[in-house]
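Explain my protein.
***
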Amino acid sequence: MAQERTGVATLKGNPITLIGPELKKGDQAPNFTLNKSLVETVSLSDYAGKIKLVSVVPSIDTGVCDAQTRRFNEEAGNLGDNVVVLTVSVDLPMAQARWCGAAGIDQVTLLSDYKDNSFGEAYGVLIKELRLDMRAIFVIDGNDTIQYVEVLSEMTEHPNYEQAIEAVKALV
């Protein structure tokens, strides 16, 4: 059974339980399998050698998640060819694709954790009560070592965009 962590996160002030480990800078990034479409999957090894900014959002169809993804889409073009920006949510791949088309998102790859929540559990951001992934940012270097982690303590708040971008730039 996966580790459960209580008292570390809230939704509008109400406690929620996160499932999985508390990852830290210096940890090896856990492998993942996420859906790019209903049939196409990707894993950590698909981005081997690249710096990965992984932006985790509960649902792309909410205001903060929308703003977070748009912000990283704007920043992505300035980070260089060796950086990939991935947004992970449990939204269905079709909903992610629809949202990207409507929002003009073209620098960020949206990936879905809908099938088995394995990313959320491996990265310690799966919300037990909602089966959504908690808002978080992970910066992973080309050797798949985590160099920056921010797991929000309140789901409805914005991450520290500037610190995440600076963590990426320090690796470029």
User: Anything to note?
Assistant: The chain has a mean pLDDT of 94. DSSP finds four helices and eleven strands in the chain. The longest helix spans residues 63-76. The first strand starts at residue 4 and ends at 11.
